[in-house]
Design goal:
Length: 198
């Protein structure tokens, strides 16, 4: 055994100790998880209205997405106020835009995704980007193996679309003109003013 390797193992008792310095935080434990997911939800809402819910994603046919039948807002602080708008298309209401203007942030939303004729619904929580209640279409009626394989494909497609949307958001979020272009366009949208083209 060479000396450098022996020095690395010195004072350790298990494999976990050997790699502990190389382990990153779980994404849900990262400080950015407390605000980045909420920004992603707001960005999705804004893009769904700005682009009529159509986006070209690398590796996919054109994808449509929208805020479906529920959106929840919350204020920060020790005594948070929560607004839970349900039914119809709550993101298109004056009440939803007023919640943003009053300083509330998007806490969670029910999203719709469509690619070709396949439509998905899911709930996405901003903090930690937790997915819940994912509904997938299903066409295969016969054969357990076929239904399982179809479901696996559909679950993978839905999460891959969401991942691709997040990558587009992250690229914009990390761009040098995020504050001057995207944030100013979102602020204009929240205020109901004409939006500068991004």
């Amino acid at each position: 055994m060479d000396e450098e390797y022996e020095e690395t193992l010195e004072g350790t008792t298990s494999p976990e100790d050997w790699i502990s310095g190389s382990l990153d935080l779980h994404p849900a434990d990262h400080p950015a998880s407390f605000f980045l997911g909420k920004e992603f939800l707001l960005w999705l809402w804004w893009r769904s209205e700005r682009d009529f819910g159509n986006v070209a994603l690398p590796g996919f046919d054109p994808v449509e997405f929208w805020i479906d039948d529920r959106i929840q807002f919350k204020t920060d602080g020790e005594d948070p106020q929560i607004s839970d708008l349900k039914g119809g298309a709550p993101a298109t209401t004056d009440e939803a835009r007023t919640a943003l203007r009053s300083g509330k942030v998007v806490e969670s939303a029910r999203l719709g995704l469509r690619i070709r004729e396949r439509e998905y619904q899911l709930s996405l929580k901003g903090e930690g980007l937790e997915i819940a209640g994912l509904k997938v279409p299903g066409e295969v009626k016969d054969g357990l193996d076929e239904r399982i394989l179809e479901r696996m494909f559909l679950l993978e497609e839905a999460t891959a679309i969401l991942d691709a949307l997040f990558h587009v958001f992250a690229a914009e979020r990390l761009a040098g003109d995020w504050n001057t272009k995207t944030v100013s366009a979102i602020r204009a949208w929240v205020a109901g003013r004409p939006q500068p083209r991004v």
